[in-house]
Amino acid sequence: VQLQASGGGLVQAGGSLRLSCAVSGRTFSSYAMGWFRQAPGKEREFVAAITWSGGKIIYADSAKGRFTISRDNAKNTVYLQMNSLKPEDTAVYYCAVDRSGSGTQVRRTYDYWGQGTLVTVSS
Fold first, then answer.
1. Residue of 32, 49, 53 lying closest to 102 (CA atoms)
2. What is the model's pLDDT at position 113?
3. Residue 99, phi-psi category: left (phi > 0), alpha (psi -120 to 50), beta (remainder)
4. Rounded to whole angstroms, how far apart are CA atoms 55 and 52?
């Protein structure tokens, strides 16, 4: 399984970005997917997760009301729409595969990780 994240960049506070993560593999539709982020000098933290059907979606408190996770199983792609961005959202954002399909906020449940895409929010 390989993951390719894209869509990061530099944006002003209050702006929006849409991250994408393309996943190789025939069984993408059975995976749960998650987004995590890691700011400089900090631990990698959970942002959002979605089960294969989209029936279960969870967000970190910091993302609720501003970020939206979605997926297109036909395109083997998961998205993270980020609105009302704040300087504290600056981080490298990683997508990850949870083959168990449970879609949790726990890092160790994720089996494969993408290379990350950098989001920088200026004040």
1. 32
2. 96
3. alpha
4. 8
Pairing label, strands 9-12, 117-122? parallel
Residue bearing tokens 């059907």: 53
- Nearest 5 degrees, angle CA 21-CA 18-CA 36? 55
Distances (CA, A) of 43 to 38, 40, 107: 6, 8, 11
As a whole number of angstroms, the distance between CA 66 and CA 87 comes to 14
Alpha-carbon distance 86 to 79, whole Å? 19
Q: How far apart are the C-alpha atoms of 33 and 49, rounded to whole Å? A: 6
CB 18 within 8 A of CB 80: yes
pLDDT tens sequence across 71-81:
999 999 999 99
Q: How many residues does the chain have?
A: 123
- State the DSSP code for 87: G
